[in-house]
Amino acid sequence: MSSTEGHLHLSDAADDHTNTNDPSPTNNGSVRIDPNDLVEIGNCMLCGSEISSEMFRDGQFRVVRCADCQMVWVTPRLKPEVLPSVYNEGYWESTSPKDRGYADYRRAAPLYIKTFRKRYSLIEKFAGTKGRTLDIGCAAGFFLNVMKDKGWEVSGVELSPEIAAYARDTFDLEDIFVGTLDEAPHQEKSFDLVTMWDVIEHIAEPLPFLKRAASLLKDTGCLILETQNVDSRFAKRLGPRWHHYKHLEHLYHFNPKTIERLLDQAGLEIVHLTPRFGGKHVSLGFIRERATRVHGVMKYLLAPLAPLSGMSFYVNMRDEMVIVARKKK
User: Fold this and answer.
1) Cα–Cα distance measured from residue 149 to residue 266, given in angstroms and rounded to the nearest whole number
2) Which of 123, 188, 283, 295 gets the highest tally of CB atoms within 10 A of its CB?
3) Residues 82 and 143 both lie in one domain
4) For 45-68, what is the HEC assignment?
5) pLDDT band at 294, cuts 50/70/90?
6) What confidence tier does 128 reach under pLDDT thresholds 50, 70, 90?
7) In the predicted model, is pLDDT for residue 26 greater than 50?
């Protein structure tokens, strides 16, 4: 993938008035998908097995689990050349956030910053002395802004030029590279800390991605990543209604064993794994929006709370993992 610039194969149907007579596009919520942009994924990326079982089907998408290593992925998925189009401006202000992106990512800035400040105690414990940090998939720069305030030298990599521009302009973050990690000009062994918050599940080829990230770490550095736990109690209880099943963007779903195996293949070992820091400060409006995933009637049951949408809470369903890893010796 290069960037989101160029021809877009995917758009929000509510905003797109082209191809109205084209019978080929199908719908995933209000997001229009061209079937020609999809590719079937038959082999497990983690162990190579060709044997999998279907967990459930959602429209044209199937969520499957590897019979050998328990890795979970979605098939079909968008082709590599199309995936960047998911992260255009419509991702950050989505008309269908339960299917793709966020209702208004920028507006939630205070809540994201509050969340990352809460997580800083984890960084203090494992990253040690302040130095250079690289946030991969840095989005609007909320984490980098917190780290800059704490005295770190900060850099970012972000695929979406629209949200990277916001990070630069709002938080005066100059060192944000727009493009993929492979294209970024960073030197090997140049960072004390590399982070990726809710990123790895979006990556079509996560092993080479993690190997590249590991190469940027100093020998004494650490990598911190966050991703969802598909085998958490909350995920199992909700089944197909789990709000992290967003098939256009969440290509893989990990559990503690599969993420450990992937990190091991990338030359990294886990030194800490916890759901404790996986919570987030969220608005009541966000909770209302995500609740509609559980059942459509929730939209109407929670409607009286609309005037209170700006209220915020710290929520941790313990369905996300925050992982600290270091290079294997």
Assistant:
1) 31
2) 123
3) no
4) CCCCCCCEEEEEEECCEEEEEECC
5) low
6) confident
7) no
Report the C-alpha gap between 191 and 144 in whole angstroms: 14
231 contact partners, CB below 8 Å, separation of at least 6: 70, 255, 256
Q: Look up tokens 């690289």; give the residue.
A: 134
Boundary (domain end) residue, out of 59, 92, 125: 92
CA atoms within 13 A on the CB side of 111: 19
The answer to whether 282 and 111 have CB atoms below 8 angstroms apart is yes
Question: Is 167 a domain residue?
Answer: yes
- Answer for the pair 40, 52: CB distance below 8 angstroms, yes or no: no
Could you give the CA distance from residue 310 to residue 28 in angstroms, rounded to a whole number? Answer: 28
Based on the domain organization, do 176 and 222 belong to the same domain? Answer: yes
Looking at the 3D structure of the chain, how many domains does it have? 2
295 burial level (CB within 10 Å; 0-12, 13-18, 19+):
exposed
pTM of the predicted model as reported, rounded to 2 decimal places: 0.87
Are both 138 and 269 inside the same structural domain?
A: yes
292-299 long-range contacts (CB < 8 A, ≥24 apart) are 292/98, 293/98, 293/241, 293/242, 293/243, 294/238, 294/241, 294/243, 295/241
- Where in the sequence is the domain holding 179, given as residue range(s)? 106-283+311-327
User: Which whole number is the average pLDDT over 50-70?
Assistant: 97
Does 2 score more than 70 pLDDT?
no
Distance CA 165, CA 160 (A): 9
- Is residue 6 in a domain? no
Cis amide prior to 76 (ω within 30 degrees): yes
Answer yes or no: is 216 within a domain: yes
What's the CA gap between 275 and 132, in Å, rounded? Answer: 26
DSSP designation for 216 = T
Lowest mean pLDDT across 240-249, 258-267, 298-307: 298-307
